[in-house]
Amino acid sequence: MDRLLRNPKVVIGLAILAFFVLVAIFGPWLISALGLNPRAVDDGAIATPPSADHWLGTNNTGQDLFAQLVVGARGSVVVGALAGTIATVMAVAVGTTSGYLGGTADRTINAIVNVLMTLPGFALLFIIAGYVQNAGYILIALVIGLLGWPGGARSIRAQTLSLRNRDFTSALRTTGESTWRIILVEVIPHLGGVISAMFLSALVGGIFAESSLAFLGLGDTSGITWGTMIAQAQSSGAILRGQWWYFLPPGLCIAIIGFATALINFGLDEITNPKLNSSLAARTRRFNADLARANGRKVTA
Amino acid sequence: MTRTTGSGPVLSADQLSIIFDGKDAAGHAVEVRACNKVSLDLHAGEIVALVGESGSGKTTLARAFARIFAPDEGEIRFHGERITGRPKRSFYRHVQLVYQDPFASLNSLKTIRHILGRTIRIHKPELTRSEVTAQILQLLEMVALTPAEDYIDRFPSSLSGGQRQRISIARALAVEPDVILADEPTSMLDVSIRLDVLNLLDAIRRERGVTILYITHDIASARYVSDRMCVMYSGELVESGPTEEVVSNPRHPYTQLLLASAPDPSRTKPAEPGDTPDVDEPADPSQAISGCRFNPRCPAVMDRCTAEKPPLFTVGEQQVKCWLYDGVEAPTRARSTDEEHRP
Ligand SMILES: Nc1ncnc2c1ncn2[C@@H]1O[C@H](COP(=O)(O)OP(=O)(O)OP(=O)(O)O)[C@@H](O)[C@H]1O
Ligand SMILES: [Mg+2]
């Protein structure tokens, strides 16, 4: 934990994510506290660029886009976080159990994972969303999460398998440590990199999938999310007319979240890969030693 | 695990074989008998040294004793009872393994406090947090990692090989076991600390009656600390007996070779340089050899050695697996001779 918070990449990435989470939680209150309403129509300002009255401009029905962006964060972040959590928990539970226990359990789980991996995720989502008219974003998150774990489970299984064969897990077994504690406390921290990578990619995937469904008109049309904002921008021709303030901010928010997750991943990689750390430290030490020796030689010469 | 009192061995291997799937030189699948019909008794309070060249199966035997490998043939017995199928946690309350490789056997993401603390807690869940800390500090002091406060919150990656090795030893001691299987526990220690650790092992044996299997390449340290010495060659136990007897009067040609190649100035009977063959040749257990497995390297090889596997012969206080001793000095054969005899 300590080492996490000393890595600048992780800290910046987490700060960005935390910002969006705060917006998702408190955004709607903030907007009403500012006296704004994302659905209110300002007849005097239709499709206007950003101004003092409307910080991010208005759309073609005269709704305030800043209010929409802030309120829309909740739907997008909830879908992403929920989908990411479901997919990650499933992948870790299935992958570590399968890899650590091995044998028949492993073979059975592997067969199921292989079948699930052949399912075309987004197409399935498309069909389900089509059946469930105006699917709420919770349902969308559930579907994305439940379809998103097999790939991650497979890579977690492979890593668990190799950890299982390392001496340190054997040493834990011969001290009498229980299987579930070995998996949860000793093995899973080694998977930190894979787990966070898969959570973050599922999170971004969830936000993307929700936006894509909304864009295709299959989302929850009554709600406001970044996806529905982009969809409306597209259907009203804002993209063709170059009304950038209409579609750029929600797209940018999605991109920034993607960037933050990538930053965290890079940072975690540095931390959980001690070779990266220690080899650097060792090289520095060797360099310093060489330097000292070279200096010493000069002095004695 | 019920413990029968009596003079029987604490832990014993009875005709134990551990078989791995391996490949021969041509790449064909063969069975590798890393341990082949090994019988070895460990009695309470004794230190038994297990020596033999690399690949002879020492680690495999220790791991079989620690129940990492299940016997493919034969049995492991704890106080005379078969251990197969018995609960493991209570077994590890009594038997602990010190792993050979201290770089691989400690979780790199956990502090020393966690590694030792968990081991203590598993077996003594009633202890409070501060009692556990006190025990960890005491263990660190026992293995000469002082000041202990400086080490307790460090990660293994910040320790040297020798320091990690001492953490491994401390972990085994944490359980206060009856048997310690120490797989080359001092291989990375420098001479002064090596002596400290050997004295520590000797002290816990004397004070607590702990039984120790001491695996080593270092004949001098084996001689220093052990009561009995067992010599392994290519998966088989070829000679065993009181350490002093084995060292001063090695019977098996392989033991003679091993001692001749060990730099031990105090050895009383050095082998003649001329009659010892090349030492570097490995004893590959995947290789099929008929008769005695040592016959391709043996300076005293006879026709019989390539035809028939020798049983264990008792010579004085030693047991030797070599045809040279068939009826020579002892008319009574070893206990397990008949089972061992392979036509
Ligand atoms: N898990 C395994 N799978 C296949 N073969 C193995 C395995 N473990 C050990 N072996 C083989 O068994 C033989 C004995 O190995 P072992 O590690 O017991 O030797 P050792 O006496 O401890 O050697 P060293 O002194 O180098 O530690 C070797 O030929 C080794 O290649
Ligand atoms: Mg070994």
Share in β-strands of chain A: under 5%
CATH topology of chain A: MetI-like fold
Shape of chain A: globular
Helical element count of chain B? 12
Strand line-up in the sheet with most strands of chain B: 6-7-8-3-9-10-12-11
The residue fraction in helices of chain A comes out at: over 70%
Name the CATH homologous superfamily of chain A. MetI-like
Q: Mind describing the biggest β-sheet of chain B?
A: 8 strands, mixed
Please work out how many helical segments of chain A DSSP would assign. 13
> Uncertain segments of chain B of ≥5 residues (pLDDT<50)?
269-278, 330-343
Bound molecules: adenosine-5'-triphosphate, magnesium ion
Average the pLDDT over all residues of chain A and give the rounded result.
Answer: 82
State the secondary-structure class of chain B: alpha/beta
What is the gyration radius of chain A calculated from CA atoms? 25 Å
How far the N terminus sits from the C terminus of chain B, by CA atoms, comes to 39 Å
Describe what this molecule looks like in 3D.
The complex is a heterodimer of chains A (301) and B (343). Chain A has helices at 2-5, 8-33, 65-101, 103-117, 121-131, 137-147, 150-164, 167-175, 179-187, 192-215, 226-235, 244-272, 274-300. Chain A has 301 residues and is mostly helical. An 8-stranded mixed β-sheet of chain B has the order 6-7-8-3-9-10-12-11, with helices on both faces. A 4-stranded antiparallel β-sheet of chain B has the order 2-1-4-5. Chains A and B meet through helix 8 and helix 13 of A and helix 2 and helix 3 of B. Bound molecules: adenosine-5'-triphosphate and magnesium ion (MG).
